[in-house]
Amino acid sequence: MDLTEDTTSPIGGIEVGTAHGRTVVRLWGEVDGALRAEASASMAQALASTAPIVVDAGGVTFIDSSGLAFVLQLHLAAGETGQRITLRDPQREVLEKLEMLGMGDQFELEPATEPATERAIA
């Protein structure tokens, strides 16, 4: 075994897919500055369609200012294009931080559901 081999798994991520006529942006694990490049690509994918957007935050274990900035920028950009945006199953930490920023009431909330991503957006 090569001890220098990096076998670590990502500790957070952003995935974009579609389900039931909506774009689903799933956040999981630690959503922080380490995901900056992934966040940019995911935002472009989510806004490439005119479908409503669901931000699934049920799997978030930690979110910092970079992660919050992604959610807020996606919210603002979707508003500019007329896309409806919903926040699915946000963890308490996400809601508390949005409240601190005065943005807690800006999102329509949706309860958790079964995994909704049917296919990835190419």
Keywords:
single chain, 122 residues, alpha/beta, Transcription Regulator spoIIAA, 3 helices, 31% helix, 31% strand, globular, disordered C terminus
Structure description:
The structure is a single chain. The chain is of the alpha/beta class and 122 residues long. The protein contains 3 helices and 6 strands. The chain has one domain (12-112): Transcription Regulator spoIIAA, CATH 3.30.750. Helix content is 31%, strand content 31%. A 6-stranded mixed sheet has the order 5-4-3-2-1-6, covered by helices on one side. Helix 1 links the parallel strand 2 (22-31) and strand 3 (53-63). Helix 1 runs parallel beside helix 2. The chain starts with 11 loop residues before the first strand and ends with a strand.
Class by helix and strand content? alpha/beta
- Largest beta-sheet characterization: 6 strands, mixed
Number of domains: 1
Number of strands: 6
Q: In one word, what is the shape?
A: globular
CATH architecture: 2-Layer Sandwich
| Assembly category | single chain
Assign a percent range to the helix content: 25-40%
Outline the low-pLDDT stretches.
Answer: 116-122
**Mean pLDDT score, rounded?**
87
Order of helices and strands: EEHEHEHEE
Spatial sequence of strands, sheet with the most strands: 5-4-3-2-1-6
The CATH first-level class comes to: Alpha Beta
Q: What is the name of the CATH superfamily?
A: STAS domain
CATH topology (level 3) name: Transcription Regulator spoIIAA
User: What's the alpha carbon Rg, rounded to whole Å?
Assistant: 15 Å
